[in-house]
Write a structure and sequence with these properties.
Number of helices: 7
Number of strands: 5
Number of domains: 1
CATH superfamily: P-loop containing nucleotide triphosphate hydrolases
Largest sheet: 5 strands, parallel
Strand order of the largest sheet: 2-1-3-4-5
Order of helices and strands: EHEHEHHEHEHH
Oligomer: single chain
Strand content: 15-25%
Structural class: alpha/beta
Radius of gyration: 17 Å
CATH topology: Rossmann fold
Length: 183
């Protein structure tokens, strides 16, 4: 059986451990946005970065991760295929518990993209990923992205109280399923 990055029980509820999977440039910029956002919120985080989940599995057998951030450069056609390959290397619990998100790091016009927004949304639907669009080359956007990722992870991991995080698209689909069964 192929090895996968395992999902485990959280050991320290005060610290959120992130794994950012993308190119070195994207990992650096997203990490910086997360660190800046966390310091402003007084949130303790731990960040691991890699270009492939396979390298994490090979080098860190007992790595604990709470939340995985997959990031793509939508200008590159192969970036979405790389994300799909990496998703297959993580424990399904990350996907089922919504402890993952997909970041489109180039929120640019569609004529300059190697990957279309429809292709990105198709992958998000297929693997139950939340999509965050941002231009990580703009520092303010990167900080806002860090805020979004921290808010999302805190909610999914149960660190924030209040209304649970719901996927609106799934609710909308469920309403139609219920309506069809009544008729």
């Amino acid at each position: 059986m192929a090895q996968v990055l395992r999902y485990g029980l959280r050991k320290n509820f005060a610290v959120i451990s992130f794994l950012i999977v993308s190119t070195a440039e994207y990992c650096e910029k997203i990490s910086q946005g997360l660190l800046n956002s966390a310091s402003g919120k007084k949130q303790q985080i731990l960040i691991h970065r890699c270009e492939s989940v396979a390298e994490v599995i090979a080098t860190h057998k007992n790595l604990h991760v709470d939340f995985i951030v997959f990031a793509i450069d939508s200008r590159l056609t192969l970036s979405l295929k790389e994300v799909e390959k990496n998703i297959l290397l993580v424990d399904q619990s990350f996907i089922l518990l919504s402890s993952t998100c997909l970041v489109n790091g180039n929120n640019i016009s569609s004529n300059a993209m190697g990957v279309t927004q429809d292709q990105i949304l198709e992958v998000c639907d297929k693997y139950n990923l939340r999509l965050l669009n941002s231009n990580i080359n703009v520092p303010e956007d990167c900080l806002y992205l860090g805020d979004q990722i921290i808010n999302l992870s805190c909610t999914v991991l149960g660190q924030r109280s209040g209304l649970p995080l719901l996927n609106i698209r799934d609710q909308h689909t469920a309403m139609y399923i219920v309506d069809d069964s009544v008729a």
